[in-house]
Fold:
Amino acid sequence: MQALKEAGCDEVVLAINYRPQVMMDFLKEWEEKLGIKITCSQEPEPMGTAGPLALAREILDDGSGTPFFVLNSDVICEYPLAEMLAYHKAKGAEATILVTKVTDPSKYGVVVMDEDNKIERFVEKPKEFVGDKINAGIYCCNPSVLNRIEPRPTSIEKEVFPKIAADGGLYAKELEGYWMDVGQPKDYLTGLRLHLNSLRTRKPHVLAEGDNIRGDVIIDESAVIGKDCVIGPNVSIGKGCVIGDGVRLSNCVILHRVKVKNFAHIADCIVGWGSSVGQWARLENKAVIGEDVFIADEIYLNGAIVLPHKDLKESILEAGTIIM
Structure:
């Protein structure tokens, strides 16, 4: 959100199909904090990566010709949006794609471009080397792109961008710094580490400090931390959390309003909103705890996935077990 504000954006449109109010409630504080209007465009059915743009046409195109950004919600980076917008305008592009370099391009769709970074074509999972830049899932588009999209389930990557490239209006800007697709729990935790490391370089003042902190940690100012805790490295503690005495946290995300009772140990896990972790409980190995889950005292969870609103009174020893 901060990157959007710095790039001059004053309105954000969220294309949501599942439980839109949950996301809107979460982002409301950012609307007030940054002075950005946030609008929800609810899809009647999943509309792909381009269809939602057609639904939001009246918001995205106000007649001024001002470009807009399109961001996939499951990727993270340092979001150089102001630089991307300037580059987009300088190239006279109809659309610009942020690309990132990977070591094994055979796993991805590769962006092939000329010496001026004009995109020529896309090659899906190439067996022979054609390039090492892939789509990073962040775009800058002119309103004219909307004229290429029908209000139906549509892929902007597979159906819209190839046509813009054929017309010579699609450019690539290479991303500097980290990039991560965080759509899976293990990748989300890796993304947290990359994000905190970036903060250490760019905004070290937002990271927590103290004798109980190990490495990079971010703690919301409203969270309450007990005595004799050891927190870090790579930990995020959300708003309204209460962390008891003697708690050990490492490589984990503790979302809003979580209560972690005395002497619990959480490592390499994600704990969902409003959940409670009992005394001496131990959670590890990429366990994912849903919203409003109660975990009793002295429970051990080894890589379990616990769906929301569960009351867990027995340990889970087999990794990957799903509690429904």
Q: What stands out?
A: Helices lie at 2-6, 20-34, 51-55, 57-60, 81-91, 156-166, 185-202. The longest helix spans residues 185-202. The two ends are 34 Å apart (CA to CA). The longest strand covers residues 133-141.
